[in-house]
Amino acid sequence: MVSWKPVFVVGSAVATCAAALSAWSAVAQKRARVAAAKARLNETLPVHSKWWRDTATTDGEILYVAIGDSAAQGIGASAPKNSYVGVIADHIRSATGRTVRVVNLSVSGATVALAVADQLPRFAGYEPDIVTVSIGANDIADFDPETFREGIEKVLDALPADAIVADLPYFFFPRNEHKVAVANEILRRAGGERGLTVAPLHEAMQKQGLRGIMTQFAEDLFHPNDHGYRVWASAFLPAVTDLAVRKFPRKPPVAATA
To answer: Which UniProt keywords apply (predicted)?
Structure first.
């Protein structure tokens, strides 16, 4: 009797190899698309930076200053105004009925140390009405708790008492989340000691669940998209709104003249 076993074994091996090659090809294509997306978003860095510089020259009754990194710049959004900083500024205008000047001191790629070296000296030249800070996400890759503590305390010490500081965002992956948990414990404790409001950015993102992975990120799978930035803004808005309307009660409507 002829045995078909070797034929089946060979056929199975061929099918397994084909499946493996197909999977490898899909992964390689995905990596290539993500790399291309990163390159495209890198090209937007000077565009966003110029947009915010131009915006800072616009006068406003309320001065809003932001400290941060590429998220504050709005990298990944369809336009700089759709960053969380832009969303917050629009909300301040709506809540107060007043014009808002936005000075966005953020720099793409900024770590806490770079914010101390670059953004804080520039921040000292302003007397802002509203301040938001979101910094530290870029420290996670090479995270050192003591270095982070020293840097974040310098940032917080430079802020007015009513500044609103976000904790670090939700990273989704356990390895990074362990480091984020340590960083956020440091940040929240330091913020509490100084009486600062800490916006719950991590919680706001985490509440989105697994669906957030599919809906919150730009094509580079790292920066937020427009929806993601609205989630970021939602972490700030309760505190920002309360501060804005206390400082700037909404103007009564102008009576029409006959």
So the answer is: Hydrolase, Signal
